[in-house]
Amino acid sequence: MDDLLAKILQLQTEAEAALSEARGALVVLQAQIEAQGQAQDLASLAKEAHQTAKDKGWWDDDPAIEETAKALWQHTREHGFSTISDTVSVLKQHWPKRNVGEMMMLWVTEIAEAYEEYRKGRLDDTYEVDGKPEGGVVEVADLIIRIMDTAEHRDWNLGHAIRKKMDYNKTRPYRHGGKLS
To answer: Which long-range contacts (CB under 8 A, 24 or more apart) does 126-131 make?
Structure first.
């Protein structure tokens, strides 16, 4: 009888340990599900990235517009422009807020920063310096944020383009017909 009681106590202890482990796993799983629930689709993230860039002044009118308008006004006021604001208005219609080439080169800077983290052995790391997130993963995130900002500004449907490209890639031959890398 004592052996049977000892066996029951042992099984109860093992069951409690298993239950505790399962509860811990459940907490982790719930956190993962919550994080996935907070994840947004690509279009929503692109809108948010672009709005943040606008809020932080990256899409403001180029200050050179005002200077150029003043110089142009000095030269052309006798040729039909009635006020300096007319000149500024015309310039703003034809002056791009952001140079697309510049925006694409900013993508390259994020890749270069990610590469520097790789060279330092920190490509997979995320850390903070004075409260600012750093690391290779963060630089890749910066690249994606910049791309989404550009995509939203130019009204690109990245989700659709990614899906089309991924579907096409499934039809390609192994290593695209023999490419080494």
So the answer is: none
What's the CA gap between 39 and 58, in Å, rounded?
Answer: 25
Q: Which of 142, 140, 135 is nearest to 121 (CA)?
A: 135
In total, the chain counts a number of residues equal to 181
* Alpha-carbon span 53 to 60, nearest angstrom: 10
Mean pLDDT, 10 residues at a time, the chain of 181 residues: 75 74 72 57 81 81 67 64 65 68 91 95 94 94 92 87 88 80 63
CA angle 117, 122, 125 (to 5 degrees): 120
Spacing of C-alpha 96 from chain mean position? 23
pTM for the full predicted model: 0.56
Q: How far apart are CA 135 and CA 10, in angstroms?
A: 48
